[in-house]
Amino acid sequence: MQKNFKLTAWLFLGILFLPGLVFLIEYCFYPKSEALSKQRIKIRFQHFYENDFSLKKYFITLNNYLNLNYLNVNEMNGVHIGKDGWLFLKPAGLENPIELLKGKNTITKIEINNISQFFKKRPFDTSIPYFFTIAPNKHSLYLDKIRTLFPLESYQNSARAIEIFSPIIKTILGESFIDILSDFEKLKINEPNLYQKLDTHWNGFASYFAYKKIMDRFSQVLNLKNLKRSEQAKVSRESTDEGDLLSMIRRGTLVDFSSMFTAYERQVIQIGAKNDNCIEHIDSSAKTEAVRSLVIIDCKSGRDILFIFGDSFMSYNWIQLFPHHFRRTIFSTNISSFDSLVKKYGKPDIILHERVERGVRFLKLK
Questions:
Q1: Residue 219 pLDDT more than 70?
Q2: What is the reported pTM?
């Protein structure tokens, strides 16, 4: 029995380290006349480590499996791996999104003052009808999907950031502040998946719901009867195993962990027939890899000009939905470019400003 154990142990060590020994021996006896430069040695060893090191992938996968399923530890840089395959963006400087509810990342008085001043004075013509909405952080809606060492109830001692911002903004803007969070929490009862499991953003159903609520508020506040929301769009479902958070995990590790996250069903928007009365222009000088940061869409059917300032959330379907109601719709990620946009494309009749919850605290006048 003891002999078999020793033999098994030596075989295991041989399988584990023999490729490395072969690499070192090959390097030591390599002809000096053909000696590798330090850079080439580094590249070659890296290639060996990533492709030939025996059992490496199995050890790393086993380590992550144990961490995730028994220790509630997440070692994926920038991404929190939640329950049931849900992924979340880690807050800067915090180990876990749940830490936002423990008072470690509370909003400062200076930030609250900056936010108040921003909405009172606004960095553009205050005579233009202005609407503001917050896209909730994914973890604000799905706290139950976050892995925690202690029961969830023990963490809920402070308000979510959106619960701090919303009353302040509502007091200043009144009906021009469009609260989406409360509606999403009600929708979750019958439609649990409003955000994508492997992505930071909302899905087609949630973005379409937000669009409809915004259009209704435009009509209500401005008494514009011509702003009927589009009925061409239909929500459908598709299976996917992609997402920006999963891409972050792939970039930050040597091993592809895609197999740990199964495909899921997400809701997407089908806009229907293409509107031939609309022409889209993309300002190439403002184009970024992640978001089309300046898009201008002209349509013959509308009569007003709409400026939408937002982040990556507005890229999910809004570019296909809003322009059908307006003569010109401009999507921009840079609100400080307002004056230059007015000079180039005309003064807007309505301004819509969207910001994801984690970005609201950084709003301030320049």
A1: yes
A2: 0.76
Alpha helices in 158-243 (DSSP H): 161-173, 181-187, 204-222
Cα–Cα distance, 137 to 253 (Å, whole number): 25
Task: Report yes or no: 349 and 304 within 8 Å, Cβ to Cβ.
Answer: yes
Report the distance separating Cα 200 and Cα 269, nearest Å.
17
Q: Which of 222, 227, 230 is nearest to 131 (CA)?
A: 222
Euclidean distance between CA atoms 327 and 323, whole angstroms: 8
Q: Beta 350-356 vs 130-135: how paired, if at all?
A: parallel
Q: What is the pLDDT of residues 326-338, one digit of tens each?
A: 889 999 988 888 9
Dihedral Cα 186, 106, 144, 60, nearest 10 deg: 140
User: Of 354, 348, 355, whose CA–CA distance to 222 is shortest?
Assistant: 348
pLDDT confidence band for 39 (50 / 70 / 90): low
Which tokens in the block code for residue 229? 């929301």
**What is the average pLDDT across 165-178?**
94
| Burial category of 119 from C-beta neighbours within 10 Å (exposed 0-12, middle 13-18, buried 19 and up) | buried
Q: What distances in angstroms separate CA 213 from CA 25, 61, 315, one per listed residue?
A: 69, 44, 17
Residue with tokens 């590798």: 36
Euclidean distance between CA atoms 350 and 222, whole angstroms: 9
Which DSSP string corresponds to 173-194? HGGGEE--HHHHHHHTTT----
Q: Specify the pLDDT at position 291.
A: 43
> How many Cβ atoms are within 10 Å of 93's Cβ, its own excluded?
8
Contact 105, 354 (CB under 8 A): no
The secondary element (H helix, E strand) that includes residue 266 is strand 264-270
- pLDDT category at 289 given cuts 50, 70, 90 is very low
d(CA 307, CA 327): 11
Taking only the tens place, the pLDDT of each residue in 95-131 is 667 666 655 556 788 999 999 999 999 888 889 999 9
Alpha-carbon gap, residue 265 to 235, rounded angstroms: 13
